[in-house]
User: What shape does this take?
Amino acid sequence: MRTTRRFDALPVYLLATIPQKKRDLIARGVDVIDLGAGDADLPAPPAAVEALAQAAHDPALSRYGFGLGLPAFREAVAAWMETRFGHRFDPLTEVVPLIGSKEGLAHLAFAYAQPGDAVIIPDPGYLAYLGGTLLSEAEPYLYPITPRTNFLVDLEEIPASVLDRTRLLYLNYPNNPTAAIAPLAYLEKVVHLCRQRGIVLVYDNAYSEMTFDGYVAPSIFDVPGARDVAIEFHSLSKTYNMTGWRCAWAAGNPTIVGALAKVKSFLDTGQFMAVQRAGIAALASWKDWVPGNVEIFRQRRDAAVAAFRANGFEIAEAPKASMYLWVPLPAGVPSMAFHERLMQEEGVIVLAGSALGAGGEGFFRISFIASPERIAEAARRAGKVLQSFR
Ligand SMILES: Cc1ncc(COP(=O)(O)O)c(C=O)c1O
Assistant: This one.
């Protein structure tokens, strides 16, 4: 039975293989510290849990949501976007509810990319961008994001022959996995180029609320003219510790939003409306609940920076955003070998930089998904493995 070229082009999704490896380690009696996925160990807001419990009793919410879903969820999203960023979106035509932002990020490519087209993707980067591109049979143009450009995609370095064919540009700041942030002046340049060339700008803002030390992440719509070309993705996953709930949205240019909604109308029949009810409750708890949650991540970040430094890793500065530390490895230590040995010999799960693209080689990522004490213990074990490479 022959598979397709687009299927064969998909690489291994390393993070998806970790749960089974983790089970095997635990079965062997290993004390596992899992800092792999961006998947918090902390509870969702009580208001969201309560709303879901109540909504589960309502048979009307057990029916298909279709693309429309609960109009009240769309309205809650639009109200939050206005409170948070000061930008207004029409709840019906400029917002699309998503079953987690991953599916939307990937499915959007089905509307805009086809064989012969190029799609610009940060490397390393969240793999849904690559997945959507490859499944659309378009050509990924992987731009290596490194300290040289402050982990920004420098569009001036991309050849005109590629830009001529580019239909989509994926950008994600605050960034997974590097934790980099983007200055507004940079985003202005990006929007300018996308408008000039008619490129759809896909701005992944999944970490907009996970920021520290007074830093406030912008929306791409803070840039004048962004509405002509951009769609911005948001998710409850990270902000509210609700990864498994699959509740997210995209907002922006109504043509782009409408195109994504149309693709989705053939692929899903909407999200569980009880989860949308819970999403409304989560958004309503933003002001009261989110700062305390972010503070927990700030403490973990500080613990991680201190502990990894103390164990021989070179961390230039504490990240201002996201739930990740992007840790450089000394030259000659391959990230996959480091990851594998740290996991098998010491029971610590981190993500090899190269698992998110060849551009991530020379780094590994830890997620702040354990207590400061456990993160410190993980750093100690990682230091031991690092020593053995020297
Ligand atoms: C950059 C980025 N975008 C999007 C997502 C997807 O989040 P979700 O599908 O849970 O909304 C993730 C999850 O790790 C991510 O890191």
Observations:
- The chain has 14 helices and twelve strands.
